[in-house]
Amino acid sequence: MKAITASVISTKMNKTAVVVVTSAWSHPLYQKIIRRSKKFLVHDELGAKVGDTVTLKEVRPISKNKHLIITEILKK
Question: Is 0.90 surpassed by the pTM of this model?
Answer without folding.
Answer: no
